[in-house]
Amino acid sequence: MRTDRPLFLRRHWLLQACAWTAVLPAAVWPALVQAGWPASEGKSLAQVLKALGAQSLTASAEVRLNTLDYAEDGASVPVDIATQVSGADRLVLFVEKNPTPLVAVFQLTDAVDSALTLHTKLAQTTDVVAVVITRDGRALFAKKEVKVVLGSCGSTSDTAEGGELRRTTEPTRIRAQWQGESALVRMRMAHVMESGQRQNAAGKRVPAWYIEQVTVSHNGKTVLSADWGPGVSRNPYLQLTLKKARPGEKFTVTWRDNKGMSRSDDMLLV
């Protein structure tokens, strides 16, 4: 999953922030308007957390990480992260032996539970690390080794040469399941999520093309935002629990990829 340029370079993010905040309200892209995003340049967890402003790193039983023991195919591996830590601000998913180890950073709000499921790519047998960053800068983590039979970078891409220029038109599939006053919401976004490392059938490298920004809104208010790298699996799956939801309310998922394409889909919770 190697790309031909470092991900989320500070200059790149500042330029994109200027361009997009000129046409979109800040509430739509809350992570985009933050000052720079050098975190994904880090190859070690310590470097990433320093870039994210964390002041300490401690293993904690209060961080729950659930994923596979063995993955027959590393192209799509489900990872559950949850915590009851007071003051949880961000959830970070880090895969130690991926070419780009930082997979995702989620910015939480009080409107969602501190529990998420994301499908990720694993390039080889590796430790998967879940980190909770609190509002006071503490970083608490849990990790688990996943043994991978076929790594995500070992297959041939079926994306045609020049396919990155085609706009994704399929809507995000959104499903909600009621749990009292809360709603468990599952989303499947339609995107090829090419890492930039694989080759097509003709032996040519397929350029990186992946979703890098996601915003989830409830009744027009942002409840979760995320920065993603190329380590998120194809047709990304994301699951969260929305607190204090009611039938008939509006739920919206908006994403933007590294080619500047974007899509927004919504549904009424039923």
Description:
The protein has 270 residues and is mainly β. The chain has a single domain, classed as Immunoglobulin-like, CATH 2.60.40. 7% of the residues lie in helices and 43% in strands. It has two helices and 16 strands. The strands form two sheets. Strands 1, 3, 5, 6, 8, 9, 12, 13, 15 and 16 form a ten-stranded mixed β-sheet that branches. Strand 12 and strand 13 form a beta hairpin. The radius of gyration is 18 Å and the shape is globular. The N terminus is likely disordered.
Could you name the ranges where pLDDT drops below 50 across 5 or more consecutive residues?
A: 1-36
User: Number of DSSP strands?
Assistant: 16
Beta-strand portion reads: 35-45%
Report the end-to-end length measured between terminal Cα atoms. Answer: 38 Å
For the sheet with most strands, the description reads: 10 strands, mixed
**How many structural units, i.e. domains?**
1
Topology as a string of helices (H) and strands (E):
HHEEEEEEEEEEEEEEEE
CATH C-level: Mainly Beta
Q: Structural class of the secondary elements?
A: mainly beta
CATH second-level architecture: Sandwich
Q: What does the radius of gyration come to?
A: 18 Å
Question: Which shape, going by the Cα principal axes?
Answer: globular
Give the CATH superfamily: SoxY domain
Tally the helices: what do you get? Answer: 2
CATH-defined fold name: Immunoglobulin-like
Helical residue percent? under 10%
Q: Would you tell me the overall average pLDDT?
A: 84
